[in-house]
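Q: Here's a chain of 281 amino acids. Please give me its 3D structure as tokens.
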Amino acid sequence: MSGRGKYRGSRPRNNYQNFPSVAKEGTASLAADSPVLAMFKNAALKLSERQDRHERLVKLSRDTTIESKRVIFLLHSAVTKEATGKAVIEAKERLQKLVEGPIKSIGLELENSPLHLHARAVTAGFQEFIEAKTFCSLMENKTIVTYPEIQKEFQYDVKEEDGENTRKVVTFLPHMDYMLGLADLTGELMRRAINSIASGNRQESYHACQVVRHLYSGSLGLYGIGKELSRKTTVMRTNVSKVEGAIYAMHVRGREAPSTLDTAAATWDAHDHHSDDEGFF
């Protein structure tokens, strides 16, 4: 007979006290002014404060992410030149409210706390804000807002409690979050290029294609410095392929396109917009 059921129904039980009861007895035996007890109470208080701060930062980051997504959707909804101008003005106002609202609150929360302890709580909001901010600047003046320009906007003068003196508070933007936001920007530019082709705006689609190419070419020099950036570099390559495929199909089917597309194509010179990214892939 096998021994698998040897202790079935009559398994010996260990008469060990569970840990909570032992801890309670040990705590009761300590004096109220014990330095050991005071040390553990102080540690518990700091951990509780850190957890509460983390939850507040997660909420602020979520608010930033939601509003940034709405700004991006607003910019995509503009088709005509007049609608684009109005959308850019509204987007800038809403982004400025984010800078003066949740992003400022993040800086106040992290004023006396190391950023690396809560980096994961705010990285999603920062990336989405960078994506919306750079997309708005591209639609406004065909340029990408730089890291120093954004970091300068994240500096605030906060009044002290007495109402007379002020102190400077800075919401630090990690460089990696800025680069990850630029990587996400290529996806929005890919959608912008395809929508421009559908609406007959070839000039806008060519510009979006070149920006996506340049961003991808620049990211290749940073490949390997982070797992998340490496993953998004692969996604950027996919976005480049989609944009190039859409523009290639537009050229191949040029005879089937409306006359408005031919008029727009006549104003674009391929030699002036030559890309030098051949050889990277």
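Q: Can you summarize the key feature?
A: The chain has two domains: 50-173, 175-257.
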